[in-house]
């Protein structure tokens, strides 16, 4: 085993500095290019990454951190965990990631009772996708059942090792570790079987001359049961006992190892990676281990303080201390150098992936010896002040009087299809080739179209459709002080999807109303109530890169104050229903249970502050969308919104089991907007009746799972027409 290099990173962005992979994937999926062409783009990105890292002076280069879609899916393939139904697909990998289309829709409606050949008429649904720990990256959840037969397919990591070697680089393959992989799949009982594959992987890599293997175990920073800790010990005892194998580097990130650390330290693994940005210097005795010290943050965009990092490094007691990032750099953009328009004073504070690698290299070269860490003197947060409106019953009565809505009011979540013309108009506006007044007229025309569609369909609470927004966070960031937006700061969210998180760098305030003119315009077109549409303070902060010199809580409260100003102005402009979305409420939930209550308390308080300016007869809605909302239902109820619309249909209406005690208006989604499929009226009616089985009719709202911006008008109109039909049937049968 060769010595561990002095500097490394746990992983690197892979979408390409100009999102080359995104374009290549979409072109392949649309049938405009071949798999070989896609693979070529992947190879170019990998080569560029390795060369770039080496040029910056980084010693330990990772491989197998590239992925065509997702590293957890790659691991499932590596272990042979490909469910049988995908094996016959043209491209099983992307079939698992994205599903397959059924026969064309036109054919579907014209065929009656014919046979469908080998492929099922509906195509294959993709595997489930969910958030990677507390990041905004989404991974594909492996599907493992008793029928799963694990079988190693080491093709991908081997090919990357060889590819790098051909370019003159020795690399350390990175693979998701067995415990995290199985915990994510909910199948830790298969540890024994899976370890057989990992053993084979180790032997294969050793035979290939690979010196070090990185096994990612971020699940070890969460609360783990004694059985799970036993699994950690079993796994790494067994892998460590193997005769011919590479050195084992177990990487943890997104928090402190806690009780997992002594367990891991008791196994024969040679190197342990610790996140020293989120966690403290390990207290356990690691004098026999190499510690890969994550002192450069992979989760923010700020420069590292060299003094603090060197002091931290100096305090780590281990056989060797390697300088590294706190996690993969997947979660930050490529290069600050690609942002010519940012203020120089802000730019001087920023570090994206490339700059962070340079920091790692500089720290490793600086040398560090036995200093004690600087006390990070972050101000302790003060008590949370719960702000509120009148009691719900008082508000509900005032709203019923003022709004006069029918039973089971039908509404949508806010966005309507974003057409190509709109996107082109926005690009032309940004490029200076379309005058602002022309753009605004186009947005107004779209609002009018959206209003007319909803009136024609017979919805009860209308929306303006959000045509002026590129994105529900970026749009607000562009209009608030304290934020900067980048040109090329893309970060992968899932597959080919990227977001460009705004940078919240200073005190936040709202210089002028943001959405009021669009909401007021929409309301002027119709006699039905139009819902104003805002993004909540937690979500704005969760989907931005946030300053690190203030407690997160204080930053969220600043944003809450800005949202509160907007709520007041909407109300003053005659908007009587205002929705403040918080789809990211769950995302910032700390990984350790011990820290969750405190977070939920201030997050809820911030939301209440944002909405506290609304009078009794103004109806506040909120919207959330993630499959495990039932876990924080009490906190959602605590938001004290008059109406909560929430994803449900997509996750099989599982949430209905938990909402009985919900104290306010609730609209569990009656159809999944992630799929182009149009739900039938019967299906919607069924979901609605199930909702009425657990909630009193006065509390129930009818709406889709989420916004409609990724769908086409054709799909939206057909789906909503069925929603209206279903709701009318239910109303009739209730005599409502
Ligand atoms: C991810 S939640 C999206 C809510 C937003 N109002 C929309 O309809 O698109
Ligand atoms: Zn949503």
Automatic annotation (TrEMBL):
All residue ranges annotated as the Cobalamin-independent methionine synthase MetE N-terminal domain in the record: 7-318
Pfam families linked: Meth_synt_1, Meth_synt_2
Domain Cobalamin-independent methionine synthase MetE C-terminal/archaeal, residue spans: 408-728
GO BP term, pick one: methylation
Enzyme class of the recorded protein, top EC level: transferase
Function description: Catalyzes the transfer of a methyl group from 5-methyltetrahydrofolate to homocysteine resulting in methionine formation.
InterPro entries assigned: Cbl-indep_Met_Synth_N (IPR013215), Cobalamin-indep_Met_synthase (IPR006276), Met_Synth_C/arc (IPR002629), UROD/MetE-like_sf (IPR038071)
Organism: Nonomuraea marmarensis
Superkingdom assignment: Bacteria
Cofactor: Zn(2+)
Family the UniProt entry places it in: Belongs to the vitamin-B12 independent methionine synthase family.
Name of the protein in question: 5-methyltetrahydropteroyltriglutamate--homocysteine S-methyltransferase
NCBIfam families: PRK05222.1
GO molecular function list: 5-methyltetrahydropteroyltriglutamate-homocysteine S-methyltransferase activity
Keywords: Amino-acid biosynthesis, Metal-binding, Methionine biosynthesis, Methyltransferase, Repeat, Transferase, Zinc
Pathway participation: Amino-acid biosynthesis; L-methionine biosynthesis via de novo pathway; L-methionine from L-homocysteine (MetE route): step 1/1
EC number per UniProt: 2.1.1.14
């Amino acid at each position: 085993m060769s010595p561990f290099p002095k500097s490394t990173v746990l992983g690197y962005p892979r979408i390409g500095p100009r999102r080359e992979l995104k374009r290549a994937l979409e072109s392949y999926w649309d049938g405009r290019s071949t798999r070989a062409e896609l693979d070529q783009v992947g190879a170019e990105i990998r080569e560029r990454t390795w060369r770039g890292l080496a040029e910056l002076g980084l010693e330990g280069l990772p491989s197998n951190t590239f992925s065509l879609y997702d590293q957890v899916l790659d691991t499932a393939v590596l272990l042979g965990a490909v469910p049988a139904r995908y094996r016959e697909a043209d491209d099983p990998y992307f079939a698992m990631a994205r599903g397959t289309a059924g026969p064309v829709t036109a054919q579907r409606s014209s065929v009656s009772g014919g046979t469908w050949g080998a492929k099922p008429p509906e195509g294959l649904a993709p595997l489930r996708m969910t958030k990677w720990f507390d990041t905004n990256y989404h991974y594909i959840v492996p599907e493992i059942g008793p029928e799963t037969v694990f079988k190693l397919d080491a093709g991908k990591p081997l090919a990357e090792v060889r590819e790098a070697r051909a370019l003159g680089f020795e690399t350390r393959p990175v693979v998701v570790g067995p415990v995290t992989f199985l915990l994510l799949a909910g199948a830790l009982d298969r540890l024994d079987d899976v370890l057989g594959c990992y053993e084979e992987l180790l032997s294969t890599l050793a035979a290939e001359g690979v010196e070090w293997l990185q096994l990612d175990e971020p699940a070890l920073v969460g609360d783990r049961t004694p059985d799970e800790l036993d699994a950690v010990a079993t796994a790494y005892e067994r892998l460590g006992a193997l005769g011919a194998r590479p050195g084992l580097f177990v990487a943890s990130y997104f928090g402190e190892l806690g009780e997992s650390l002594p367990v891991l330290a008791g196994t024969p693994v040679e190197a342990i990676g610790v996140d020293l940005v989120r966690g403290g210097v390990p207290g356990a005795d690691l004098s026999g281990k190499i510690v890969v010290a994550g002192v450069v943050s992979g989760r923010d965009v700020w420069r590292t303080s060299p003094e603090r990092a060197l002091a931290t490094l100096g305090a780590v007691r281990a056989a060797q201390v390697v300088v590294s990032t706190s996690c993969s750099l997947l979660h930050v953009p490529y290069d600050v150098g690609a942002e010519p328009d940012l203020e120089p004073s802000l730019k001087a504070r920023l570090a994206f992936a490339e700059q962070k690698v340079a920091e790692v290299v500089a720290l490793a070269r600086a040398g560090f010896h036995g200093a004690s860490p600087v006390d990070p003197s972050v101000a302790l947060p003060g008590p949370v002040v719960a702000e509120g409106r009148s009691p719900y019953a008082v508000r509900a009565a005032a709203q019923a009087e003022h709004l006069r809505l029918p039973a089971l009011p039908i509404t949508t979540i806010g966005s309507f299809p974003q057409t190509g013309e709109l996107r082109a108009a926005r690009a032309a506006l940004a490029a200076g080739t379309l005058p602002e007044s022309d753009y605004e007229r186009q947005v107004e025309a779209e609002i009018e179209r959206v209003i007319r569609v909803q009136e024609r369909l017979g919805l009860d609470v209308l929306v303006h459709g959000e045509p002026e927004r590129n994105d529900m966070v970026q749009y607000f960031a562009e209009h608030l002080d304290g934020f900067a937006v980048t040109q090329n700061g893309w970060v992968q969210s899932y597959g080919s999807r990227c977001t460009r998180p705004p940078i919240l760098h200073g005190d936040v305030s709202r210089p002028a109303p943001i959405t009021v003119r669009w909401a007021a315009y929409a309301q002027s077109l119709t006699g039905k109530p139009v819902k104003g549409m805002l993004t909540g303070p937690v979500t704005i902060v969760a989907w931005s890169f946030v300053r690190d010199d203030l407690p997160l809580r204080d930053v969220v409260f600043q944003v809450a104050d800005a949202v509160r100003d907007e709520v007041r102005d909407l109300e003053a402009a005659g908007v009587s229903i205002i929705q403040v979305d918080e789809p990211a409420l769950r995302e910032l939930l700390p990984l350790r249970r011990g820290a969750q209550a405190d977070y939920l308390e201030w997050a809820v308080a911030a939301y209440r502050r944002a909405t506290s300016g609304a009078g009794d007869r103004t109806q506040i809605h909120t919207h959330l969308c993630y499959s495990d909302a039932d876990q924080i239902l009490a906190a959602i109820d605590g938001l004290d919104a008059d109406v909560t619309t929430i994803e449900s249909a997509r996750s099989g209406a599982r949430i209905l089991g938990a909402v009985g005690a919900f104290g306010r208006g609730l609209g569990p989604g009656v159809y999944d907007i992630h799929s182009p499929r149009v739900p039938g009226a019967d299906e919607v009616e069924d979901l609605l009746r199930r909702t009425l089985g657990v909630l009193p009719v006065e509390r129930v709202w009818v709406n889709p799972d989420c916004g409609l911006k990724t769908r086409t008008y054709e799909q939206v109109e057909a789906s909503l027409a069925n929603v209206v039909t279903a709701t009318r049937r239910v109303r009739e049968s209730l005599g409502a």
